[in-house]
Specification:
single chain, 309 residues, alpha/beta, Elongation Factor Tu (Ef-tu), domain 3, Rossmann fold, Ubiquitin-like (UB roll), 3 domains, 7-stranded antiparallel sheet, 5-stranded parallel sheet, 17 strands, binds FE2/S2 (inorganic) cluster
Length: 309
């Protein structure tokens, strides 16, 4: 879908919010927790990253995303922060949801770290609209990664619990997870170390896996250039350092299913037949990685990569 950047603002020195409006017609409705893929032309190649929709799902006229400036990235966040201007056009995908709320939950426990607050902005709006029982725990560094803090304080009052690392405030996960009422569902989004800590603590306390929901805030990271041989079609491709394998396959005309573009949803799984793989996904087991890879994040290294494509 073609959209126009209709507004932009800095939420913190590191986080820029964009409002995206349709160029014609209307945008598809979305549910809380959805993301869209945004296509960006960075230098000579096209980058596609997934960003959570941060707006209220009841607002149908535009989408909002918020992007953190990453130093060690393939250039997408730098492009959004330094080059993209109000009035520019972008291509985005339709929304998809890998982080939906579970309506029957008796209580919703939301835990956000830094830029991981973005999907919760939509969750909070949806939970408030249905008068559901919830609480939000937000860990951040004051003045850098505390996007949306003031409106959340105003809207949530005592349901918001803040942990500012610059003030030495820490979230006690063991205490928090041990004190939730029966029937609670837990949702977390943020840096990998937060996700790991939340999931480990939930497992230690016996939370059922079906009640623990997480969204990794990951996207393809750059690496060394490498060569790929597509065995079935007998083609050879070169993947640039700033390009993901998935983007290189798409540029060559292959249509690989994908949703998250961050190595977590499992959609883009592809068989490899030879060569060395640097696996960077959070989805495949070690046994599965022996024959499959996730081209959205994983790369070739060492011996040339051969794919069953
Ligand atoms: S697109 Fe989700 S794992 Fe690759």
């Amino acid at each position: 879908m073609a959209v126009r950047v209709s507004a932009a603002r800095l939420l913190t020195p590191l986080i820029r919010e964009l409002t995206l409006s349709p160029i014609s017609g209307t945008l598809p409705a979305f549910s809380a927790g959805s993301h869209v893929q945004v296509q960006l032309q960075v230098g000579s190649h096209s980058v596609r990253n997934a960003y959570s929709l941060t707006g209220d799902p009841a607002e149908q006229h535009h989408y909002r995303i918020a992007v953190r400036l990453e130093a060690d990235s393939r250039g997408g966040s730098q492009y959004i922060h330094q080059q993209l201007a109000v009035g520019d056009e972008l291509n985005i995908s339709a929304p998809a949801n890998l982080f939906a709320l579970h309506a029957p939950a008796r209580h919703h426990l939301l835990i956000a770290g830094g830029i991981g607050i973005t999907p919760f902005m939509a969750h909070v709006a949806a939970l408030q609209a249905r008068d559901a029982s919830f609480e939000l725990h937000f860990a951040y560094r004051g003045g850098l990664s505390d996007a949306y803090l003031a409106p959340l304080q105003q809207a949530l009052g005592e349901r918001l619990h803040c942990y500012d690392a610059s003030l030495g405030q820490r979230l006690d996960l063991a205490k928090l997870l041990a004190s939730q009422p029966l029937g609670s569902h837990l949702y977390t989004c943020g840096p990998q170390r937060l996700l790991d800590a939340v999931r480990e603590q939930a497992q230690r306390l016996g939370w059922p896996r079906a009640k623990v929901h997480w969204e990794a805030f990951s996207s393809a990271a750059p690496g060394e250039p490498f060569a790929v041989h597509l065995a079935r079609s007998n083609r050879h491709l070169q993947v640039a350092g700033e390009q993901s394998l998935l983007e290189a396959l798409e540029a060559a005309g292959l249509d690989i299913p994908n949703l998250c573009r961050g190595g977590v949803c499992g959609q883009c799984v592809t068989r490899h037949l030879g060569g060395d793989v640097e696996h960077r996904d959070l989805y495949l087991t070690c046994d599965e990685q022996a024959h499959s890879l996730m081209p959205c994040v994983s790369r070739g290294c060492g011996k040339p990569l051969v794919l069953d494509l």
